[in-house]
Amino acid sequence: MDCGLYIGTFLLAAENLGLACIPQAALVMRAAVLREYFGLSEDRQLVAGISFGYEGTGYATNSYRTERSGLEEVVTWAD
C-alpha cells in the first residue's frame, strides 16, 4: 500500500502548524494492541502511525544527530 505521499503531506502540514512529527511503520507490528485501544475492526488495515506533538528542544537527547555518509560513499554515478 502506498501512503507515503499522504504521510509526507501530513508531516508538512503539521510542521506548518508548529508540531513535530515522527512517522512510524513499526507501530503496525503492534496492530492487535492498536485495534483494541482505538476500537478498530479487522476490516481496517494498519500501515503506519504518526506520533506528533510539540518539540522538546530543551532536552539534550533531542539535539543528538547521527553522522551521514557522503554521496561519494553511497552513490555510483553512471555516464
Number of helices: 3
Approximate helicity band = 25-40%
Total strands: the figure is: 2
Strand content: 5-15%
The average pLDDT value, as a whole number, equals: 90
**Low-confidence spans:** none
Gyration radius, rounded: 17 Å
Organism: Brevibacterium salitolerans
InterPro entries: Nitroreductase, Nitroreductase-like
Protein name: Nitroreductase domain-containing protein
Domain Nitroreductase: 1-54
Structural topology:
Layout: H1 4-16, E1 20-24, H2 31-38, E2 49-53, H3 71-74
Antiparallel strand pairs: 1-2
Report on this structure.
There is one protein chain. The longest helix has 13 residues, at 4-16. The protein is extended. The protein is α+β, with helices and mostly antiparallel strands. The mean pLDDT is 90. It has a two-stranded antiparallel sheet with strand order 1-2. It has helices spanning 4-16, 31-38, 71-74; strands at 20-24, 49-53. It has a domain at 4-56. It comes from Brevibacterium salitolerans. Residues 1-54 form the Nitroreductase domain.
